[in-house]
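User: I'll paste a sequence; please echo it back and then give the predicted structure.

Assistant: Echoing your sequence first, then the prediction.
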Amino acid sequence: MTRYIRWTLLLLIFPAMVHAQSTSITLNEAVELFKQNSLQQELARYERLSKQGEAIQYKAYPNPEVSINREQLNAGTVDYQETTYMLSQPIELLGQPFLRSRSASKSQKATELQFEYDRLQLIRQVKSLYAEYWQLSEKLEIYNRALEVIRKARSAAKARQAEGSFSGLQVQRFNVELNRYRKQRDQVQLNLRQTGNRLATYLFSGQELDTEFQLSDSLTVDPINVQEQAVVQYALANRADLAALEQMVDASELQYKVEKRDRLPDLNLNIGYKEQSDGAEGFVIGGSIKLPIFNQNRGNVTITQAQTRSRQTELTLKQQAVRNQVSTAYERVELVLEQWTSMQEDAMDQSMLEAAWAAYQEGRYSLVELLDATEAYVDGQTMIYETIADYNQALFELNVQSAGQISNSQNN
């Protein structure tokens, strides 16, 4: 009986223990998990598929029409019948099918390029959430260290109060500081949980969303070695969204040509076979056209002309926007790098906090000096890790805006 209970408990506890084990992932592994599991990426794929379908439908050639007519022509007592089998096919004589096919190909290419850019944006979000989760994890450790110092100091203060060498007001001050840091720590812990949940929605799907993970990469500040103008020119030549818009401009120009040619009538070719009840039979051939008297397709010509000019203007604005986006992202990287450099002077680390605690124990630091040292440690270390995360997030943004030149230059 005891053995049975032991095995039952093991079967109940073991899955929970396995589930509780956290997965350690690097930044590159996070990107790979996103590519494999992301529902956001799946939505982008469906959008791409929908636009590809529109392009395929646009270039589709009209289907032929088959008709069968049977005529009963009785003259008195004579039973006379005629049966006609007819195939009708619209034929565009001015090359519209070829123009539509070229336009559709460019639209499909634009769809692929836009999907590529959208996926890069989603990957940037994954990397930014990774950096945010990393800095919140570090910040949580900072507050835990500060709380440990405050708890030790409060315990020492209570002991001194019992000896009569410490006032109750000083103990109360430690209580206030302890509650303050605990409140801030709890808020950081909540933000960490929320960020982790957001990151998990990009990396896992279904039941795997409950997977706990830890980050194994430690972010650093690595200065870039490319000039701003070089980054701008590279982006103008290689940005996928810009190339997609260029393809859409070409597609619109071809659509405009199609609509202009559609002002002239198309031939409707009819080929068939006729049988008569008297034994006579033979082929039938004919044709028809729509006379462009009332409708000369002016509306569609005007619409496609406006769309073409609109996209040409949009392309010019997009080129200006790319320049501004790259310049702004580059400047952000430079500014955060300057902040990081200035922080390296007289930065307060954990050893200084421990030294302040030791000095307080020895009586060389007062209560105010210990609390000031603790606050300086928390603020300084928090700012350092926030700046590291900001720098990497700025790099991720610049990498997307520059069409991947930053990652290419760093790999080289």
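Residues 6-20 have pLDDT under 50 and may be disordered. The domain at 22-60+92-262+297-411 is CATH 1.20.1600.10 (Outer membrane efflux proteins (OEP)).
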